[in-house]
Amino acid sequence: MIFLLPSQSSPPFFYIFLLVLLTVTALSAAATTQSKCKFEAIFNFGDSNSDTGGFWAVFPAQHGPNGMTFFKKPTGRATDGRLILDFLANSVGLPFISPYMKAIGSDFKHGANFATLASTVLLPNTSLFVTGISPFSLAIQLNQMKEFKLRVDEFYSSSSSFSKGWSQLPPPDIFGKALYIFYIGQNDFTSNLKAIGIEGVNQYLPQVVSQIIDTIKEVYKLGGETFLVMNMAPVGCYPALLVQLPHKSSDIDQYGCFISYNKAVTDYNAMLKKELERARSVLPKASLVYFDTHSILLQLFRHPNSTHIDSLRKRRTVGEKL
User: Fold this and answer.
1) What does the DSSP assignment read for 251-311?
2) Cβ of 122: how many Cβ atoms within 10 Å?
3) Spatial CA neighbour of 231 closest among 182, 275, 188, 161
């Protein structure tokens, strides 16, 4: 797959637009229909990068400036505006995808979002109230997906329920016509860096990849056919990590990012891509799309001034320890 990179003078919104454009293009190539990319629903698995309100539906306490620029109020998204998932849904003609955990105001006719802020791929061995890691790991999100499908099938098999005319659930054949998105794994990488270091984190990253592949296979058994898997962002450029974690100046590149952390991310992404290629051989009806968000996001960090983002090199000096 070929990815175009924007110029250094491109505005921030261009990067979001490019992500969506390239994603839709990739999905169009992978879709079974020959005319255009058309999905009737989206089912999303993820963390804060794609949580549209699941976490805050369970632990309601969100306040501004979240949601201020577009929704004009907090909506459960860990941003002041919209997420890539929101733009992607809109680009394929779907409304915003409702959080599975949100009981009031949700509409599941076009899918459900199982993502929650701070989620991990692997089951957490700690509590939310101790480390801030969400209890809704990928395995839990998969169980929610299975329960959702079970309830949909039960609803339409019951004439009494169907006669009530409640229209917030999708038809039972939706699962083979939906797009399944996986944008998760970042918290498995970052949550234990301070405790066990990059060497320790590297030891269990193969388990993270394996769990993602196994989950895709489980969803495939439920009728899923089209899967979009986004790789990991260059977390070695995250200002929070640069400030919080001890490091030497020799581990910082010319753009102010961790060399060792970004190398580990690159290795992880290569592993994920390789395992997805292997999965294609055992999932004959599936379209598996590996999407390289890493390359585009890296440009944001490497050229922050051209996109109106504060220079990371200035932030790095605040927490640098030699």
Assistant:
1) GB-TTS-BHHHHHHHHHHHHHHHHHHHHHHTT-TT-EEEEE-HHHHHHHHHHSTGGGT---
2) 17
3) 182
Q: Which two tokens stand for residue 142?
A: 């998969």
For residues 141, 214, 89, 82, the Cα torsion angle rounded to the nearest 10 degrees is 60
Q: Tell me which amino acid residue 232 is.
A: M
What is the reported pTM?
0.87
User: Using CA atoms, how far apart are residues 118 and 55, in angstroms rounded to an integer?
Assistant: 9
Q: Where would I find the H helices in 222-258?
A: 239-244
Q: Within 10 Å of residue 118's Cβ, how many Cβ atoms?
A: 20
pLDDT digits (tens, 9 = 90+) for 214-259: 999 999 999 999 999 999 999 999 999 999 998 999 999 999 999 9
Among the ranges given (140-149, 204-213, 262-271, 306-315), the one the predictor scored with the smallest mean pLDDT: 306-315
CA distances to 79, 130, 196 from 63, in Å: 11, 22, 33
